C-alpha cells in the first residue's frame, strides 16, 4: 500500500554564485562541482531517486543553462520543473525559496544543492515537518538548533550559543507538509515585502518556531557522513568521505604498450624492464 505521508517532491536551491568556491565556480555552478568522482547534483539526484522522489523543483540562477543541461541527461525519469531567480547575485536563499511558492502545492523536502551525504540518511526525512541535524564538529558553522525531550526543535540560533543547553547543527534539509508550507509562504511574503531579501530562510523558520506556528521533529545525520561544500577546503575534506579510484592519465594508453614492447626487448640476452 502506498504511504500517503511519503514525500515524493524535492525542492533544490541552486541559484547562488558559489563565490567562496572560486575559481571552480567561475565557469560552472557550485552544484556541478565534482566530489569523489561525481557531481554534487548528480549524487543528490541519485539519493533522492533511491528514496522515492519523483519530482524535482529546481531554483536556478548562476549559469542556469548548465544545470538544465545536466538534469536533462541525468534526471530523465523524473519530472523536473524550474524556477529562475533573476536577481540571484543580490539576494539570498530566502528569495529563492519564496520564488517557489506558486510551483509547489504538495508536501516536499527542501535540500540545499551544496550537500553530500549518504543516501540512507534521507529515509527519516521523507515524511512532513522534519529537520536534519547532526552533532557539531569543529568544521561546522552557521545555524544551530535546540531540542526538547521529544527531539522537537525549540529554538534556532544564528550561531553556536554560549549557554549550557545542547545544540545541534542544521544540515540544511527540511521537509514540510502542505499546511506548514502555506504558513511559511505567509511569513516569506512578509519578509519580501519588507525587502529582507538578503537573509537566510532559517530566519523565517526561527521566527515561526519561536511563536509556535511551525514545528520540526529532528532526524539525526551522522556527523561523519555528510558535508556542506562552501570552500575549497570543504571540498578537500568532503573528498575524504568519498574516496574513489583516480582517473587514468590519457598517456597511460601509450605507456602500457611501450612497457610491453620493452619486456620483449633483450640486451645482451637480458630482458629490459620498463
Describe the structure concisely for a colleague.
The protein has 274 residues and is an alpha/beta fold.
Task: Write a structural description.
The chain is of the alpha/beta class and 274 residues long. It has a single domain, classed as Spore Coat Polysaccharide Biosynthesis Protein SpsA, Chain A (Alpha-Beta Complex), CATH 3.90.550.10. Helices cover 27% and strands 23% of the residues. The protein has seven helices and 15 strands. Strands 1, 4, 5, 6, 8, 9, 10, 11 and 12 form a nine-stranded mixed β-sheet that branches. α2 links the parallel β4 and β5. α3 packs across α4. The longest helix has 16 residues. The chain starts with 8 loop residues before the first strand and ends with a strand. The C terminus is likely disordered.
Gyration radius over CA: 23 Å
**Could you state the order of secondary-structure elements as H and E?**
EEEHEHEHEEEEEEHHEEHHEE
Helix fraction by DSSP (H/I, runs of at least 4): 25-40%
Into how many domains do the coordinates divide?
Answer: 1
Specify the CATH architecture: Alpha-Beta Complex
Determine the CATH superfamily: Spore Coat Polysaccharide Biosynthesis Protein SpsA, Chain A
End-to-end Cα distance, whole Å, is 63 Å
Which consecutive residue ranges, at least 5 long each, have pLDDT under 50?
245-274
Topology:
Blueprint lengths: L8 E6 L19 E2 L2 E2 H11 L4 E6 L3 H11 L4 E6 L8 H7 L8 E5 L2 E3 L12 E5 L9 E4 L5 E5 L10 E9 L1 H16 L8 H10 L5 E4 L5 E3 L3 H8 L12 H12 L2 E2 L2 E2 L3
Parallel strand pairs: 1-4, 1-6, 4-5, 8-12
Antiparallel strand pairs: 2-3, 6-11, 7-13, 8-11, 9-10, 9-11, 14-15
Helix pairs in contact: 3-4
